[in-house]
Fold this protein.
Amino acid sequence: MSTSETLHLPALPYPRGALAPHISAETVDLHYGKHHAGYVANVNRLLAGTARRAAALDDLIVSSSGGLFNNAAQVWNHTFYWRSMHPEGGGDPSGRLLAAVEEGFGSIDGFRKQFVDAACGHFGSGWVWLVAGGDSLEVMATSNADLPQRHGRTPLLTIDVWEHAYYLDYRNARPAYVERWIANLVNWEFAASNLAAL
Ligand code: MN
């Protein structure tokens, strides 16, 4: 198999310990090095020897199903999740994104409450997203590997609420993880760049 027909694990956008103390290097080692890497390996194994082996990830996440979809979407979701965080994250958005958040949620605090409530309240494994919908921004929750592109929405940022994202650092206290994430790690510049690309 040539390398062009194989998915690769994208590099982390910062060192493995850069999100501490909010997310530990140990969590990143497992989450990135085992979970994310495992999804990449599973996609390559499932595609090996099939006619779809050269399919691009962006195609797989909207056109595949079953185990191939689950693993391909988890590759996409995790790559997007790492970029949704920044060691110097947190604070408030600015410019066009701030205006869009205020239009969609009334205020930045209104957004934060809706996002945190969705992330804390989502039952089981999944993802909570800020998405661009029809006319305005929305908070969206998806289960397991599901992602906004399957529902006609464009993701701007995401938080992973699978237990493997926070259990080492926060045990069962998902709200503590979510609150620390939105206060200290959220990467508004990444969300703004995704909005600007629309
Ligand atoms: Mn995860």
Observations:
- The helical segments are 25-47, 57-63, 66-83, 95-105, 108-121, 167-170, 174-185, 188-196.
- The two ends are 35 Å apart (CA to CA).
- The first helix runs from residue 25 to 47.
